[in-house]
Amino acid sequence: MPITRICLVRHGETAWNAEGRVQGQTDIPLSAVGLKQAHAAAAALARHDFTAAYSSDLMRVRQTAEPCVRRLALPLELDADLRERHYGIFERLLYTEVRSRFPAQYARFREKDPDYDFETGESLRAFYDRSLQALSRIAQRHGGEQVLVFTHGGVLDMVYRHAHALGFAAQRDFGIPNCGVNWIEVGAAGWSVQCWADVEHLSAALDELPET
Known about the structure:
- The protein is an alpha/beta fold.
- It has one domain (4-84, 124-198): Rossmann fold.
- It has seven helices and six strands.
- A six-stranded mixed beta sheet has the order 3-2-4-1-5-6, sandwiched between helices.
- The radius of gyration is 16 Å and the shape is globular.
- 38% of the residues are buried.
């Protein structure tokens, strides 16, 4: 299998990111800050050559991708499998509200219980499988090429853990900033991280994801 080089970009900042509200698959737009970040990322990535561009179909990711694909004159392929994890009963609530309203469920989330699905959402195990399968399909489709993928913080968490053979329970000690740029290579030898959480193109970037 020829090596595929993938540039992964987390979506820009939203109002919900800034206030610590659980987004999951709730479809909300970028904030003014996030829109500026999207244009800054587009300027930084314009010097690279890509053969294809993919995006989660949720609005905050599409809005992040659009300035870049316009500059690169690339069509944007939407893929629902690049969506964030479905957080079920947690979605739309502040993390502080989740802790007080659902203490037992929040404890299972913090402990990285692989089978906890937020009652109406998606388990960590299922989310991991979906995320990795989506990116594996892209890598297989574009062997030997360089592609651009816009997605969510949770998906990036799964990618990093897979590439470094980290279990779900390992504490997150790597950044996943809004509109950060991350480069990986996927080939017969496996997945490897070439560059992670690059925010040189940004004046500031938020990483509000729980440190779990």
